[in-house]
Amino acid sequence: MSPAKPNFGVYTPLVTFFQEDESLDFQSTLAHVKRMAEGGVAGLVLQGSNGEAPHLDHAERKALVRAVRDHLNQLGFPGLQLIVGCGAPSVRETLSYIFESRESGANFALVLPPAYWVAAMNVQVIEDFFRDVAAQSELPILIYNFPGVTGGIDITSDSIIRLAQTTPNIIGCKLTCGNVGKLQRITSATLTDSFAAFSGKSDFFLPALVAGSNGVIAALANIVPKVHVELLQRYERGELKAAQELQAKLSHADWALTKVGIAGVKAVVSHNFAYGTGRGRRPLGNITIASLSQDIVGSIQEVVDLEKAL
User: SMART domains per the record (predicted)?
Assistant: First the structure.
């Protein structure tokens, strides 16, 4: 029997907060976890791109997953699922991250294609990589397609469909590439009760739902989880026009958010919800809300005001 896929819903790719000396800020990160859980998300993605996974060592990754899992249990959210980023350049290192994540309380592993030797990463090499990882993985796997962090590697729908149909331990994918046509091809060619294809950005959340997405894994959910959940509920109730109105606001806010980077996401959270700072680990540096233009802040503030009204 194939492993169960992630639950349908909104997932926040959690940012990781740091102290002034760039050590982990557990207090702020766990305050963020609490707000996400109370905002109605179905799960969290830890140590993805927004979580600055490449900037964390093995010990920090394990400590963060365990702290988040324990905190959710203490808050009364034991069923909230954890997807943990485990991408690495080799099969061996990827499996090491997966083992550590499972031991720390993860439910699923999110795996990027290996990208150090970009020129060698043809279709066969990439598919073999995922099959080799899946064969030994102690967690069910989601394929993470994000050309922006893998030297332009863009996994095709053909590859994802082949892997989904032949590899039971691969139970989903996250498409940050923004290709709704790719998502539609994947959802129409896979069993939706056993394979979860997620849209990877807020700006195509509603179109992706129409195309069969299992929900969304979106950076903007760090700021406005309730707004994302509200859009999902409007869609499920068949209130398409009302959902479109929310989608328009999310699209403008998401576009603004792409201009500020990960540290900027944290700066917006800090300014509006009074925890954490806009500090990333170098070379990302530190951003404050005062350093952002009004054009950027305005689009984001509109959805923040909605969030606080829900």
Answer: DHDPS (SM01130)
SS3 29: helix
Contact criterion met (CB below 8 Å) for 108 and 174: no
Domains of the chain: 9-239 (3.20.20.70)
pLDDT at res. 113: 97
Q: What is the 3-state secondary structure (H, E, C) of 173-242?
A: EEECCCCHHHHHHHHHHCCCCCCEEEECCHHHHHHHHHCCCCEEECHHHHCCHHHHHHHHHHHHCCCHHH
Say how many C-beta atoms besides its own lie within 10 A of residue 110's C-beta. Answer: 30
Q: Mind listing the pLDDT tens digit for each residue in 154-184? A: 999 999 999 999 999 999 999 999 999 999 9
Q: How many CB atoms lie within 10 A of CB 39?
A: 18
Task: Return the SS3 of 197.
Answer: strand
Q: Is 98 annotated as a binding residue?
A: no
Catalytic site positions:
144, 174
pLDDT digits (tens, 9 = 90+) for 57-78: 999 999 999 999 999 999 999 9
Please give the Cα distance from 87 to 106 (Å, whole number): 14
What's the CA gap between 181 and 49, in Å, rounded?
23
Question: Which residues sit opposite 82 in a β-bridge?
Answer: 44
d(CA 237, CA 191): 23
- Of 22, 40, 38, 111, whose CA–CA distance to 71 is shortest? 38
